[in-house]
Write a structure and sequence with these properties.
about 550 residues; alpha+beta; M1 Pyruvate Kinase, Domain 3; Rossmann fold; 4 domains; 6-stranded mixed β-sheet; 6-stranded antiparallel β-sheet; 30 strands; MOSC domain-containing protein; Benzoxazolinone_Detox_Enz; Cbr1-like_FAD-bd_dom
């Protein structure tokens, strides 16, 4: 943001300097230190006179003994008539490097130094003028310093969830810093869940409950026959199940329809498909007490709990099962969960599975919107109560949804966005998914924001990879190492995130190229063919898995 210095006093209201337009990602007031101008002009060999006041985008230029290392989150200062509270360090983006005429690599040097300035929020409005004294009225001496917070935000090796949680609970912490910490906590938690209780190969599970969810749909609760804990999983993943010999020994994958980090069981919800031998056996002959064999949870169609855009879940029929798990994981985010739009299509009330369970969750989410389509409603189905629209989810219905706006406040500042700015999750029959996907594309939705269980770029089908049973993965740039296991079925991006390594990523399907990094040694393959293969010696982490016993990655 380009600003000009004021000759006289400026009034600072609750939203910052009056008449000032802030960027979406900033706090109310950005302060920079006059001494930093001298430091960076010398470090970058720039004529100090070439930088006029406000060149770094600050609202306030401060001079004196205050620095990032002796400012704490929650400290309060009286400057002129206004009372300001420290919230966080500056979190620079590439626009600053452009402003300074430096390459983007300069941001790494800037972040490492910690000499980036500080954000304040306005506690008591008032005028601030040139030469006003800076008086500390409250020192939050036990809180984290601005310098330490800056290092924590940008140091991917800090992977202790308890440490991050304590910082997150700091009174007065700024919205953008809070969002960054929450995103890392969510990624680390999901990584820990994936690693918890894992096993290799097949494991016997006992059916301890069977429940009818709707016409043709039953849920089966599975507990480990050995009495041990279950393996952790991410919302949206599936189980691979092998039925007993008397059931034909069929191997099938079914989505997990529940999400509970503390649960000691899995829940599978299965529709009896016409002519389906495995599903028919489950529905007709699988009793409580019977045993089946199960491989660890797998799958890359999972909820990203680090986003801040509205989450839109669109399903049809039995496609609701992974969506229900995602809905529960989304609700776990509590007050910081982004807005939610839930869209589901089924024949009628008789086939509407999990209606009460979903409604109870939506009622707990402020601003959540429910839209239920019944393609063949029955006389006792009540419009406006049981369902919202008669008919299928059409391209016209999707287009109307995209034209609607919604509000959110990702970093404390309220925004109004159009419906195409959202994270979309689709699950249903192929024809249904194609109609929705085409309508979203026609409405201008970025394909990188659309995730589904079946979709592959350009219709390409991913071939089964000849991966090893295990591979030693080294992230040489972060000095971290781990072991990849075939049974986990994780991508190299998921492995990196589980190690606490912050890798830029967007689509997670090989479309955007954001996660491309150097491949120092080893061989990799792609579970989903990327839109464009990277050059030799490079790898797209989001859809890659190892093909050799050892892989070294420059991340």
């Amino acid at each position: 943001m380009v600003r000009d210095a004021a000759d006289g006093p400026v009034r600072f209201g609750k939203s910052g300097p009056e008449g000032n337009e802030t960027a979406v990602h900033t706090e109310q007031v950005y302060a920079f230190f006059a001494e930093h101008y001298d430091h960076w002009a010398a470090a970058l060999n720039v004529d100090r006179g070439a930088w006029a006041d406000c060149h770094w985008g600050e609202n306030l230029m401060l001079r004196g003994s205050l620095r990032e290392e002796n400012l704490h989150v929650g400290d309060r200062f009286r400057i002129g008539e206004a009372l300001l509270e420290v919230t966080s360090p500056r979190i620079p983006c590439f626009k600053l490097s452009w402003r300074l005429g430096q390459p983007e690599q300069f941001l790494g040097q800037l972040i490492a130094s910690g000499l980036m300035g500080v954000y304040f929020r306005v506690i008591e409005p008032g005028s601030i003028g040139p030469g006003d004294a800076i008086v500390r009225e409250h020192e939050a001496a036990e809180a984290i310093t601005v310098l330490a917070l800056s290092k924590l935000l940008h140091d991917p090796t800090i992977t202790d969830v308890d440490v991050l949680g304590r910082v997150l609970s700091t009174p007065g912490l700024g919205g953008q810093a809070s969002g960054m910490i929450r995103k890392r906590i969510n990624a680390l938690t999901d990584g820990l869940l994936m690693a918890r209780g894992r096993w290799q190969g097949w494991r016997r599970f006992m059916v301890d409950d069977v429940r009818v969810e709707a016409e043709g749909i039953k849920s089966f609760r599975l507990r480990p026959a050995d009495g041990g804990p279950i393996g952790g999983y991410r919302a949206g993943q599936f189980l691979t199940v092998r039925l007993p010999d008397e059931a034909g020994g069929h191997v099938r994958t079914w989505s997990l329809s529940d999400y509970d980090q503390q649960a000691g069981h899995y829940r599978l919800s299965v529709k009896q498909a016409p002519g389906g031998r495995a599903s028919a056996w489950l529905h007709e002959k699988l009793p409580v007490g019977a045993e089946v064999e199960v491989r660890p949870p797998a799958g890359r169609f999972v909820l990203d709990r680090g986003g801040f855009l509205r989450t839109v879940m669109i399903s049809a029929g039995i496609g609701v099962t992974p969506m229900l798990a995602m809905l529960k994981a989304h609700a776990e985010r509590g007050a910081e969960a982004p807005p939610l739009l839930w869209i589901h299509c089924t024949h009628s009330g008789r086939t509407h599975a999990f209606r009460e369970e979903v409604d109870a969750l939506l009622d707990k989410l402020p601003g959540a919107v429910r839209r239920i389509f019944y393609s063949r409603p029955e006389p006792d189905d009540v419009l406006g109560v049981d369902y919202d629209f008669a008919g299928r989810v059409t391209a016209e219905a999707v287009a109307a949804m995209l034209q609607e706006s919604y509000r959110l406040a990702p970093f404390g500042r309220a925004l109004e966005l159009t419906g195409d700015n959202a994270d979309f999750y689709l699950c249903g029959p192929p024809a249904f998914e194609q109609v929705v996907r085409d309508a979203l594309g026609a409405g201008g939705v970025n394909p990188a924001l659309i995730r589904s269980e079946s979709f592959n770029p350009a219709g390409a089908a991913g071939a089964a990879l000849d991966t090893p049973e295990r591979s030693d993965i080294s992230f040489v740039g972060s000095n971290r190492a781990t072991v990849w296991l075939k049974d986990d079925d994780a991508t190299l991006l998921e492995v990196a995130e589980a190690c606490g390594i912050d890798v830029e990523s967007g689509c997670r399907m090989g479309l955007c190229g954001t996660c491309e990094v150097g491949l120092r040694s080893g061989e990799v393959g792609y579970v989903t063919p990327p839109a464009a293969l990277p050059e030799r010696g490079r790898v797209l982490l989001c859809c890659a898995q190892p093909l050799s016993a050892k892989v070294e990655i420059e991340a």
